[in-house]
From TrEMBL:
This is N-acetyltransferase GCN5. It comes from Flavobacterium anhuiense. PROSITE patterns: GNAT. Coiled coil: none annotated. Keywords: Transferase.
Length: 176
């Protein structure tokens, strides 16, 4: 099974919408609206085309990941960062390493674009394998009430989180 990763393009939008819908259909901790979030983010200032990546097998899109701009802000500084949300794989292709490939490719692309960190809300047993650590370790706070063990951050570069602290400021497209 050969997995090809590439930047999403306009012709992929409908397939990606359906993919995300199917991927989150049975997720317990989901509002089942992630596909609409992706549409809003694509039309926002937070969107970075190179960081909307699809995974294909035999020319069929089976996975997608999106990283968008956000900020970490304190009283005196604003630090640019990225949000990883969502990462989606069709149910019949889950457990085959596609999600991992998307995450790692996204990290590499983000680093090449000059980004130093990524923030996410995710499963505390899954994301640490990629180097994600708890936000609270860096005194990074979410703007809403969520369990601390699900709020994670990764430095994409050495010292990528040096002196970074404050509250995460998500793009308004996350809340529309």
């Amino acid at each position: 099974m050969e997995i090809t990763l590439r930047q999403e393009n306009k012709n992929d939008f409908e397939s990606v919408f359906q993919l995300i819908e199917k991927a989150f259909e049975k997720e317990e901790y989901s509002d089942h609206k992630e596909q609409f979030l992706v549409e809003r983010l694509r039309n926002s200032d937070a969107f970075i085309p190179e960081l909307s990546i699809v995974a294909e097998i035999d020319n069929e899109i089976v996975g997608h990941i999106l990283f968008t701009k956000l900020q970490i802000k304190n009283e005196s500084q604003i630090f640019p960062s990225l949000a990883l949300a969502p990462v989606s794989v069709l149910p019949e292709f889950q457990g085959k390493g596609i999600r991992s490939k998307l995450i790692l490719q996204g990290h590499e692309m983000a680093k090449s674009l000059g980004y130093k960190s990524v923030i996410l809300l995710g499963h505390q047993d899954y994301y640490p394998r990629f180097g994600y650590e708890l936000c609270e370790k860096f005194n990074i706070k979410m703007p809403f009430d969520v369990p601390a063990e699900n709020c994670m951050v990764i430095a994409l570069t050495e010292d990528g989180l040096k002196d970074v602290n404050g509250e995460v400021v998500y793009p308004k497209a996350f809340f529309e």
